Amino acid sequence: TDLRQPAATPHLKATATTATIAEVSQGLLAPSAWTSPKYLYDALGSKLFEAICALPEYYPTRTEAAIFARHGADIARAVGPASTLVDLGAGNCAKAASLFPLLQPAQYVAIDISYDFLSESLGRLQQRFPAIDMLGLGLDFFSGLDLPGTVRDSKRMFFYPGSSIGNFSPDQAIAFLRQVRANTDADGGLLIGVDLIKDGAVLDAAYDDALGVTAAFNLNMLRHLNLLLGADFDVRQWRHHGFFNPHESRVEMHLEARSEQLVRWQGGQRRFAKGERIHTEDSYKYTRASFVGLLEQAGFAAANVWTDEQQWFAVIHARA
Ligand code: AVI
């Protein structure tokens, strides 16, 4: 197993670079405060996200898994054998591992911003599949997909499950998909999971669950920023909001100040009024047709779409 953390991402070790300080400060100081959702994922954030995936209200993970279970053979036929499986946002690597028997990749490249979590998962996976050449990369691909030469370039199949593409705005998604397309040779492609527009009550519950795991996941961002930027957020003074915004076709997550307070961090300070919010994440929902349109705009060719009976989620294979 070759585990790499490129020198260009030192902020992943919880020491902020000047660029990170500038980026977070820009968001926190904006009239309507915001933070990039990438800061949801430190080691604890990744574990909380894993717990979200096991919640009864959070349908995407199990619905996507059911699509793979039901249509796996069909999907494998459409995709064909992949030499290199590039897993974007691999997390615990479980979804890609379930595809190994179907796709039989010679190389598995796992990319995730949360590097420590990734390297633990990949270490365990390598023991289960000793014949596959595995490479772990601690990359922040929100800001660009720059793959090192150790990633083999023949028959690259990019795998982007879980509807993580929804955490980009549609414009950012097209730009990102263009980069994936630029990294794909003629016999490669993309296998992607996309969350579909559905009843607002289902979406509200999925992002504001009864146990409060999503609330903990969202609030953990403040804890992470405290460690990363020496900020002094008092986590107990903030409240989670997660709801569907039908006008923008997205679920929004916000953190709301429970009381008026001054927050300081390396790079700035801000007084938040009671009720003021920090916008922490968007999760865009698509129709089948609107997402296929996005893939076409990004330069991908024919797409196959598989969905569940309720049409809640789609797995899409796009050819280069
Ligand atoms: C990772 N991503 C696809 C999740 C989503 O559904 O947008 C992150 C998440 N946020 C709250 N719950 C889950």
Structure description:
Pfam families: Methyltransf_33. It comes from Janthinobacterium psychrotolerans. Residues 22-319 form the Histidine-specific methyltransferase SAM-dependent domain. GO terms for molecular function: methyltransferase activity. InterPro entries: EgtD, EgtD_Methyltrsf_superfamily, MeTrfase_dom, MeTrfase_EgtD-like, SAM-dependent_MTases_sf. With 320 residues, the chain is an alpha/beta fold. The protein contains 9 helices and 13 strands. The chain has helices at 18-29, 43-53, 59-79, 94-103, 115-128, 170-182, 200-206, 213-229, 288-297; strands at residues 2-4, 84-88, 107-111, 133-137, 156-160, 189-195, 238-245, 250-257, 261-265, 268-272, 277-284, 303-307, 313-319. It has an 8-stranded mixed β-sheet with strand order 1-4-3-2-5-6-13-12, with helices on both faces. A 3-stranded antiparallel β-sheet has the order 7-8-11. Strands 9-10 form a two-stranded antiparallel ribbon. β12 (303-307) and β13 (313-319) form a beta hairpin. The longest helix has 21 residues, at 59-79. The protein is globular, with a radius of gyration of 19 Å. The two termini are 29 Å apart. The relative contact order is 0.18. Bound molecules: N,N-dimethyl-L-histidine.
Provide the structure class: alpha/beta
Low-confidence stretches: 5-13
Tally of alpha and pi helices: 9
Categorize the overall geometry: globular
The hetero compounds bound to this protein are: N,N-dimethyl-L-histidine
Distance between the termini: 29 Å
Strand order of the largest sheet: 1-4-3-2-5-6-13-12
Task: Please tally the β strands and state the result.
Answer: 13
Q: Helix and strand string, N-terminal first?
A: EHHHEHEHEEHEHHEEEEEHEE
**CA radius of gyration:** 19 Å
Mean pLDDT: 92
> What percentage of amino acids are in beta strands?
15-25%
**Residue share in helices?**
25-40%
Biggest sheet, open or closed, and with what strands and sense? 8 strands, mixed
